[in-house]
Design a protein that fits this description.
This protein has 293 residues and is mostly helical. The chain has helices spanning 3-33, 52-59, 61-93, 99-107, 114-124, 131-138, 157-182, 186-194, 199-227, 231-236, 248-257, 262-292; strands at 36-37, 47-48. It contains twelve helices and two strands, in the order αββααααααααααα. This is Carbohydrate ABC transporter membrane protein 1 (CUT1 family).
């Protein structure tokens, strides 16, 4: 081993040790627990039950409901964030007067912790004194100030958590896409202008294809992040009412802490990790194909 290799290994060692202790070991323990029926009040290691915990999880209506809500949450939130982020990135990329100030304002939600964001939206969506219902009533959109029970109606509870997530993380999508836009060579636009291409054709034939690899990375990061969301949902609804806003992270948390089902919650977590790995693999393959083209 050369001197440079030894130095590189020494620099990597702390991160490697950290990964082994705080990532790989907990995952292995999680997989092991998923095959056991464990009593949290007992000191023994539990009873081996094979794949029973996995079967019970897949057959559970609550697990399937939480999975469905998670998919809806991810698709709606990430799609809205992508469209809004692209719009604001294109707007800021024009370099209009005062764009730096506007960019700072738009990035401000990104500086707020998800827990704090959830508390802010919990007050704003309150059916009694929330500003959202007040504005809807003032503009004659609703008939009363408590016409919409955002957090206590099973028809709007999940939507409320999605709105809070969109407000919080759209700035991230905007920032990534703006960086991608600024990395597109200006010569491409100059050539298109000489060829007589209008703004619509320039967008679809130059901007969008050049931005595609960046968009895939941004979508991948946000998809994984949105799928494992917990703070916002827990603060706003705790998965209620009647499990209408229950997502996988909150259901796994309840299964472990409220019902004491260590094995079943571990099995659900393993299934969740597999789902995230499959999603990540799909986006990575898509990104590789986009770069190859």
């Amino acid at each position: 081993m050369t001197r440079e290799s030894k130095i590189s290994f020494l620099f990597f060692a702390p991160a490697g040790i950290f990964m082994i202790i705080f990532l790989f070991f907990p995952v292995l323990l999680l997989i092991k627990d998923s095959f056991f029926q464990i009593d949290m009040m007992s000191q023994d290691s539990g009873t081996f039950v094979g794949i029973s915990n996995y079967i019970e999880s897949i057959k559970s209506d609550r697990f399937l409901g939480a999975t469905s809500n998670t998919l809806i949450y991810v698709v709606v939130a990430v799609s809205a964030e992508l469209l809004l982020g692209l719009f604001f990135a294109l707007l800021l990329n024009t370099g209009f007067k005062g764009h730096s100030f506007v960019r700072t304002i738009l990035l401000s939600p990104l500086m707020i912790a998800p827990l704090v964001s959830g508390l802010i939206w919990k007050f704003m969506l309150n059916s009694q004194f929330g500003i959202v219902n007040k504005l809807l009533y003032d503009f004659n959109i609703t008939s009363s100030r408590n016409a919409i029970q955002w957090l206590s109606d099973d028809r709007t509870a999940l939507l409320s958590t999605i709105i809070a997530d969109i407000w919080l993380t759209t700035p991230f999508m905007m920032l990534v896409l703006l960086a991608g836009l600024q990395g597109i060579p200006i010569t491409l636009y100059e050539s298109a202008k000489i060829d007589g291409a209008n703004k619509i054709k320039t967008f679809f034939y130059i901007t969008l294809p050049s931005l595609l690899p960046v968009m895939v990375v941004a979508i991948l990061i946000r998809t994984v992040d949105a799928a494992r969301t917990f703070d916002i949902v827990w603060v706003l609804t705790q998965g209620g009412p009647a499990n209408s806003s229950e997502v996988l992270s909150t259901y796994m948390y309840k299964t472990l802490t409220r019902y004491g089902e260590v094995g079943e919650s571990s099995a659900m977590a393993v299934l969740f990790i597999i789902l995230l790995l499959l999603l990540s693999s799909y986006f990575l393959v898509s990104m590789f194909k986009a770069n190859k083209k």
